[in-house]
Amino acid sequence: MSVGTSSAPGARDAGSPPAAPRPPGDHAGLGIDPDQLPDGLVVADEQGRVICFNAAAERITAVRARDALGQRLEKALPLEDLEGRRWWQLTDPYGGLAIRVGQPERNLLLPGGREVLVSARYVRTRPTGPIRRLVVTLRDTEARRRTERSHAELIATVAHELRSPLTSVKGFTATLLAKWERFTDDQKRLMLETVDADADRVTRLIAELLDISRIDSGRLEVRRQPVDIGAAVGRHIQAYVAAGQPADRFLLRVQQPLPDLWADPDKIDQVLSNLLENAVRHGEGTVTIDVTATASPREDEDTGTSVTVSDEGPGIPEESMNRVFTRFWRGSKRGGTGLGLYIVKGIVEAHGGTITVGRAPGAGAEFRFTLPVSAPAYLA
Q1: Residue 81 contacts residue 90 (beta carbons within 8 Å)
Q2: Cα–Cα dist 255/243, whole Å
Q3: pLDDT of 3-32, one tens digit each?
Q4: Residue 77 contacts residue 109 (beta carbons within 8 Å)
Q5: How do residues 247-276 score in pLDDT, each as one tens digit?
Q6: Nearest to 271 by CA among 312, 325, 218, 322
Q7: Beta strand pairing status for 303-310 and 365-372?
Q8: Can you give the pTM of this predicted structure?
Q9: Angle 57-60-65 (CA atoms, 0-180°, nearest 5)?
Q10: Whole-angstrom Cα distance, residue 379 to residue 260?
Q11: Quick one: pLDDT band at residue 335, thresholds 50, 70, 90?
Q12: What string of H, E and C letters represents the secondary structure of 100-116?
């Protein structure tokens, strides 16, 4: 992009008469239409007068381009720092140190107190020469505020979820230590089993936080091994039956033959655990799991494996479908952190797969994830 070069509108040689302000829409010589940029762009000439004020800058500052063009920069863009100091007087780009090349991005305030992210680039004809162009970029802080709110909500959720089991653990251990001799063996066993279950709950929550951190940073590792997906689903069903769920609540249908699947068995177990728990806890009737061969979600593979988990409950409202895989979405008020499906999506996508949600034939919820077989090259 050639913003700030000698061909930019408004440029003139020393001693020549001042150029007329560029009318809105006249971007010849900039190399790109600044109005097409997603961030605000303000360019001032060597005299500190605005020669470019793009559409995003208009939107962010609520200043019209035709009012800003030709104005002194400090008047067209009257910025203050968070301590109320005039930003252009403080930084003095035209009269300050000649070795400066710009200003890093920082929070500044527009008139009325609106916060924006501002950075500046000083364009000189030679390394320590006078400024030929001052290029200022503006970004709205709304995206960052949303991120900060998401982090704050995550912290609040985690604090709430940790408080309950830790309070239980502390209460039971303090009681046992203080009154050990007063309890029967059965009472001690019950309290210790409760402590053990609460410790498992804390461990699961910490594991969820680690998964979220890895997903958000793109560092979720996938260690691929051969996985028998049908057998993995069967183990989860057996665990639910052992915990008291009726065996006839589950229907497992495995299409044969299935392609050999190479995936991370622990993470696939995590996906299955979340989807089945979601169906058992929030759904009703029979939970049906279909495992089938399907087209691979990857262009360089022909086959993949698809797993569909459906129930016969009330399903997910149409207006909530696009929020199911976001953080903190809860299908009901029956507990949970609202992080499970967000993690499921991250794990599936880390495998190169896809996951969707819809309405099951029996009107309940239906989750379907598809994985590429991802066989090693030596097996191809």
Answers
A1: yes
A2: 27
A3: 433 333 443 443 434 444 444 444 445 567
A4: no
A5: 999 999 999 888 889 999 999 999 999 999
A6: 325
A7: antiparallel
A8: 0.59
A9: 40
A10: 10
A11: low
A12: CCEEEEEEEECCCCCEE
